Amino acid sequence: MNNNNFTPVKSGIYKKDEINLSNIIFSLKNHPKIKDAGSILTFTGIVRNTSKEGKLIRSLEIDAYEELANNSINKICKEIKEIPGIVDVIIIHFKGVFDIKDELVHVIVTSSHREEGFKALRLAVEKYKKEIAVWKKEVFIDGSSDWVH
Amino acid sequence: MKVEILYFADFKDITGKDREFLELKENTVEGLTSKIFSKYNPLKNLIWDEKIKNLKGNISIVINDKLITDKNKGDVGLTDGDKVAFLLPFAGG
Question: Which chain B residues touch A133 with a CB distance below 8 Å?
């Protein structure tokens, strides 16, 4: 599986469609300690067609303070990698304008066993939701829009 | 003294830009807020609490990519060339 020309995928903020789940899994499978892993767990956040209040959404915009968000993402990844049994983690958050069903975020954890992998994945998802400098604007089908806070 | 201010999310919609340089007479965050409120009045409703005469409690200030944790945010000093951003609570995708 090792490839001399291989460049690992770095966690962080990316433009829409700049990278996909296959690229990330390929990168994780080239991790020097991948042989210690027995699972790859993934979470992908996509655009839902309703807001929390039930309003119909036409599209979503994501804005990010990249320097700050990347620092927070790296801090979260460092914390997750310190959990026993976790081999690696990658968090990718996209920015730009998105349609319904478009992918907004990927969180992928490789772990020795599934139990610690599921826990770490959940923790990483909860953390990125609160801790990274990213904002989303819901654009509704009636033409109005709101930044979510 | 000149500082660079970054605008994200609501700030970007209100100002119509993602960053700009502003000349300040007073070298504090309060000096900067006075400047931006006079230039973009809707920003005052967004981040200013008139009752406490200070920034709303949920507003964070970042100077040169570092989060400022001082209690009285308005008094925080600025120096020439600082990069400043006011941030509303985050909402990841």
Answer: 8, 87, 90
